[in-house]
Amino acid sequence: MLTSLHIKNYALIDELKVSFHNGFTIITGETGAGKSILLGGLSLVLGKRADLSQVKNSKEKCVIEAVFDIANYNLTALFKTLDLDYDVQTIIRREILPSGKSRAFINDTPVTLENLGALSGSLIDIHSQQQTQQVTQDDYQFKVIDALAENQLNIEAFSKQLKQYKSLEKTLEQLKQSKAELIKEYDYNLFLTKELTEINLETVDLETLEAEYEALNNVEIIGEKLASAKAILNAEQLGVLDQINASKQELTKIASFGAAYENLKERIVSIGIELDDILVEIDDLEEKLSTDPEALEGINTKLQIINNLFQKHAVLDVKALIEIRDTLQLKLNDTESLDDAIADKEQELVKAQEKLKQMALKIHKNRKKVIPVFVSKLEAILSELGMPNAKFKVELEALTHFVKNGNDNLQFLFMANKGSSFNELKKSASGGELSRIMLAIKSILADYIQLPSIMFDEIDTGVSGEISNKMGDIMKQMSLKMQVFSITHLPQIAAKGSAHFKVFKTDIDDVTHTNLKKLSEEERIVEIAQMLGGVAITDSAMAHAKQLLN
C-alpha cells in the first residue's frame, strides 16, 4: 500500500508531505483546487514521462517520492527479474532537473521508465475515466476470468510450454529450409562426388603416370636412341668399350712406375665396369621396350580426367581434390541425415502440441466453470448500482490455434435494457455504465486476488442518491482487503471513508499554491456539510453531515 507521498516543486505545489494508512481514504476539494495536480505527481511515480513545464520553479529540482509497503504483494520474483534489491518498504523517486532531464530510482537504484512502469503497475492503480475502457479489452477480460478461475499457475506453465513449442517449430522450419537448400545442390554434389570417387584419387601418383605416358608415347624414339647408344659403346674397334680397354692396357704397362699412373689405371678400370653395367641396363630396357596402344590410351585418359578436375575445381594437386571430395561427401551425408533430424523434431512437436492441448483444455474448463459465478455476481452488483435490467453474457470459444494464454477466444457481451439484444461491451455500454461495471468487476476481483492500491478518480461522476451510497459501500467493502482511495464530489461517498483529505488552494504574495490536508472529525463534518449545501453552511446541512458520518 502507499504509506507516504512527498512532492516538491511540482506545478502549484511548493512542498507537500503526507502519510496514508490502509482502508478507505477520501480526497475532496472544489473543482480546480488541484486534485489533478496530485494525480499528475503520482503518475510520474508510476512512470509517466516528465516535462520541464511541470516544474514550479525551473531553477530548482522537482522531486516526487512515494513509499510503499509491499509485504503482501509477492513481488520478490519481479524485483529479481528487474535486477533490483527487494525491500518491503520500497521507495520510488522521480526527479526533474533544471536541465529538463528526468531520473527515476527504486530503492535508490537508477531505473528506466520501462522498469519503473513494470513495478509500479503492481503497486497502485489509478482508475480514471480513460482507464474504464480497459474493461472492453481482451487482455483485461481474460485477467478477470482467470483470476476467478485461479488460472495463474496454469497459464504460467502453459506460457513456458508454448515458448518451447514455438522454439521447436522454429528449429523444424530451419531444418526444412536447410534441406530445401541442400536438395537444390544435392544432385550436382552427388555428380561431383561420384566423379571424384571413380578416379580413386588415393592411388593416383601423378609423376609416375606422366612418366609412363611419356615412355609409351615415345617408344620408337627411345628404342632408336637406346640402340644408337649401345652401338657407340659396343662397336668393334671403334666402340667406347674397346677404346677404354685399349687405354687400360696402355696404362697397365706404366702403373708400376708410380702411384699416379696406378691411380689413372684404376679409374679407367672403374669407367669400364660402369660402362659394362650401362650396356647391360640398355639391353634390359630394350627387351622391356614394347608398344602398348591400349595402355597408352588408358594413361592418357586418366591424365586428361585429372587435369579436367584440376581446372573444374581450380586446384593444382591431387591432395586438394581429395579434400574437395570429402567435403562434398559430408554435404551429401548432411542432406541424408536431415531427414532423420526432421522426423525427430516433428515427433517432438507432436508431443509438445499434445501437452499444450491438455494444458489449454484445463485452463478452458476452469474458465468455463467460473463464468456463471462471475456473471451472477456482476449482475447482482450492477442491480444495486441502479442497473437492475443489465444482463451479461460471457462467450468462451475454443480456437484451433494457440495464443499466449491458452486457445480460447473470450468476449464480454452486454445488454443494458429489457427487450434489447446482447452486443459487444464496448459498443453497448455508455461511459457511466462502464464506470459502474468496472467498479463492480474490481470489487469482485478483490475477493480473489491481492489487488494493488487503487485510486478511483471521480468514478461517481453522473450518479447520485442511493446509487452513490451503494458505490461508497462497495469501495468501503473493497478497502477491507486493500487500500482504496476515492476522489469524489459526493458527500454520500465521502462520509464512508476511514480517512479524509482535502485539496485546497491558497494565495500567498499573489502566488497560488496547492495544499493537501487531513481533516479532523470536526473539519470533516464541515467539509461534508459544504458538499451537501454549498459554502453557506446551514444547520440542516450540518445535521445531515453528522448523520452521514454516523
TrEMBL record:
<dbReference type="Pfam" id="PF02463">
    <property type="entry name" value="SMC_N"/>
</dbReference>
<dbReference type="GO" id="GO:0043590">
    <property type="term" value="C:bacterial nucleoid"/>
</dbReference>
<feature type="coiled-coil region">
    <location>
        <begin position="335"/>
        <end position="369"/>
    </location>
</feature>
<feature type="coiled-coil region">
    <location>
        <begin position="155"/>
        <end position="219"/>
    </location>
</feature>
<keyword id="KW-0547">Nucleotide-binding</keyword>
<dbReference type="InterPro" id="IPR003395">
    <property type="entry name" value="RecF/RecN/SMC_N"/>
</dbReference>
<dbReference type="InterPro" id="IPR027417">
    <property type="entry name" value="P-loop_NTPase"/>
</dbReference>
<dbReference type="GO" id="GO:0006310">
    <property type="term" value="P:DNA recombination"/>
</dbReference>
<dbReference type="GO" id="GO:0006281">
    <property type="term" value="P:DNA repair"/>
</dbReference>
<dbReference type="GO" id="GO:0009432">
    <property type="term" value="P:SOS response"/>
</dbReference>
<comment type="similarity">
    <text>Belongs to the RecN family.</text>
</comment>
<dbReference type="InterPro" id="IPR004604">
    <property type="entry name" value="DNA_recomb/repair_RecN"/>
</dbReference>
<feature type="domain" description="RecF/RecN/SMC N-terminal">
    <location>
        <begin position="2"/>
        <end position="506"/>
    </location>
</feature>
<dbReference type="GO" id="GO:0005524">
    <property type="term" value="F:ATP binding"/>
</dbReference>
<keyword id="KW-0175">Coiled coil</keyword>
<keyword id="KW-0234">DNA repair</keyword>
<protein>
    <recommendedName>
        <fullName>DNA repair protein RecN</fullName>
    </recommendedName>
</protein>
<keyword id="KW-0227">DNA damage</keyword>
<keyword id="KW-0067">ATP-binding</keyword>
<comment type="function">
    <text>May be involved in recombinational repair of damaged DNA.</text>
</comment>
